[in-house]
Amino acid sequence: MHIAASVLAFGIACAIISGIMNGIFTLPMRYLGQWPWENVWAIVMLVPCVIMPIVIVLWTVPGFTRVLQAAPPHAVLFACLFGFAWGFGAIMFGQGVSAIGISMGNTLALAISASFGSVLPILVLAPERMFRAQGSAIIAGTLIGIVGIACFGYAGFLREKSQQGNTRQIRGDMVGHARPFSIGLLLCMGSGLLSAVFNIGYSLGQPIRETAVRAGHTTFAGTNLIWLLMLTCGSVPSLCFCGFLMAKHGTWRRYAAAGSARLYALTIAMGLIWGGHTYLYGFASPKLGKLGPSIGWPLTLMAGLITVNACGFLAGEWKLTRLRDRRWMALGLAVTLAAIAVLGWSSMLG
Questions:
Q1: How many domains does the chain have?
Q2: In terms of residue numbers, what domain contains 222?
Q3: First-to-last CA distance in the chain?
Q4: What is the rounded distance in angstroms from the CA atom of residue 322 to the CA atom of residue 324?
């Protein structure tokens, strides 16, 4: 089916805005050091993964239980299972970013997620397009993006070397505590793999959206049902882990400490921004054609990568670095912009 250029352009714009939101949502973590990590992350996961999905589905999909009952059981099962698996990646992401910083943690996670989460959905949604013009363009854009991410990653390693011995000055009031770079690296790599699983689960859950559309609902409403299943199941590991840490460390009472209003506002804002990014991605993906998850995912990730590195730079994460380090970051930005252009072009080949 031919898709109007205006619809494609709107979908691409929404995917990029979604990525920008994804890039800025962790920024408040730099100012939440008065709370332990588990107190922050519990609210960050509760807002977008439990409260938002329930409210939005009740608003957009009247009688949603009937739609879920009519949807293919395997699609419902895949959405729940892949969402639950992603929940462990959310824990790793929160720990990894807290350990090694916003820009570096996001860069490492996005590198893995972009490589697996963009190409694998083609095998799920339209394997026959893998070696056609559109599939080749998506693969090319993803590979270019990985090169850009590698440049960001190398810049991060150089930054780490330049800033050695000045961790406290760079971290500021960052929530959590610094860990050895190797530990943060492993956490973010695991997060990236399970973040890719999130997009694969979304791809496998597309029959739920199609069932909702046949029942007279919009594509956006149908996508919201997928998020309801994936996000609520994904919240279980994070909320259980945070609850365990709070019980172990006795940090429940920190929620009632004097002067916590600002901390509540920042953590709720983090959850709302990340949740908004997810729903905007779900809104954009169908507008990019049958391979929307393969096009929208890397667009969103790379826009987020550019944003998070810009935020990290402005927040002082690149203090005390050399000119060479910043040049590698600028090269990563240029290559990633080229990848976004290729992926945007690929959406017009379907």
A1: 1
A2: 5-349
A3: 8
A4: 5
